[in-house]
Structures are given as C-alpha cells and as structure tokens.
Specification:
The protein has helices at about 40-50, 60-65, 80-95, and strands at about 15-20, 30-35, 55, 105-110. It has about 110 residues and is α+β, with helices and mostly antiparallel strands. The protein has a single domain, classed as secretion proteins EscU (name from scop, 3-Layer(aba) Sandwich), CATH 3.40.1690.10. The protein has a 4-stranded mixed beta sheet with strand order 2-1-4-3, with helices on both faces. A hairpin with an 8-residue loop joins strand 1 (about 15-20) and strand 2 (about 30-35). The longest helix is centred in the C-terminal third of the chain and has 17 residues, at about 80-95. The chain is globular and about 40 Å long. The chain starts with 16 loop residues before the first strand and ends in a 5-residue tail after the last strand.
Length: about 110
C-alpha cells in the first residue's frame, strides 16, 4: 500500500523524505527548491544543516509538498501552514540576531517504523 505519511522502499523499509523551500522578495509564494527520498533526502538535510538552514520535521507537510513539482510555488492550500512556519522561523532568527530577510527551510519527514 502506498501511504504518503509512511513511505517505504521495495523491501518495506521506511524511507526518509525531505523538501526544501525558499521565498524570494516579490514572489507570490515560497518555492520548492529541492526534494528527495532516501539518500537524496539525507543529502538535502545535511546540506541545510551545514549552511545553518532550519530543518522542520512534519510528516504531513512533507507528504503534501513532495507532490509539488521542483521549482514551482507551493499551492494556495498550503499557504497558511507554510506562512506560519516561516513567520515563526523569522521571529526565532530575529531574536537570535540571525534573521535573513527571506527565510529558507527544509521540511523533513522522520524515519518511522511501520
């Protein structure tokens, strides 16, 4: 069975997914700038961490964002959820003195046991 909240490989093992979002000045919505499963997801997360990019873990949100094509804006149905994350992230970074004008983040799906 294909359950987007608990992706599995052909052997039934859990697979990690990750989606990277970015928001640019003047853009109508955040854009999916990277996404992947398994080793690609791990590389996306590692690269984000190397560059100090926030990694948020949400099975539900990453399952929805994995359906968005690369370099496309997120759909309007996800605006509120992503806007709340970006606003929270901006607030946290601003208080730490690290705020970039337009935050970038990776949304990670934790590995889970079936």
């Amino acid at each position: 069975m294909n359950d987007p909240l608990h992706p599995q490989d052909e052997n039934g093992s859990s697979v990690q997914n990750a989606v990277a979002l970015a928001y640019q000045a003047g853009a109508s919505a955040p854009t999916v700038v990277a996404k992947g499963k398994g080793l690609v997801a791990q590389a996306i997360i590692a690269r984000a961490q190397e560059h100090g990019i926030y990694v948020h873990q949400s099975q539900e949100l990453v399952a929805l964002l994995m359906q968005v094509e690369l370099d496309k804006d997120i759909p309007p149905a996800l605006y509120r959820a992503v806007a709340e994350l970006l606003a929270w992230l901006y607030h946290i970074e601003k208080n730490d003195g690290l705020a970039a004008p337009y935050p970038t983040m990776v949304i990670d799906q934790l590995k889970t046991s079936p």
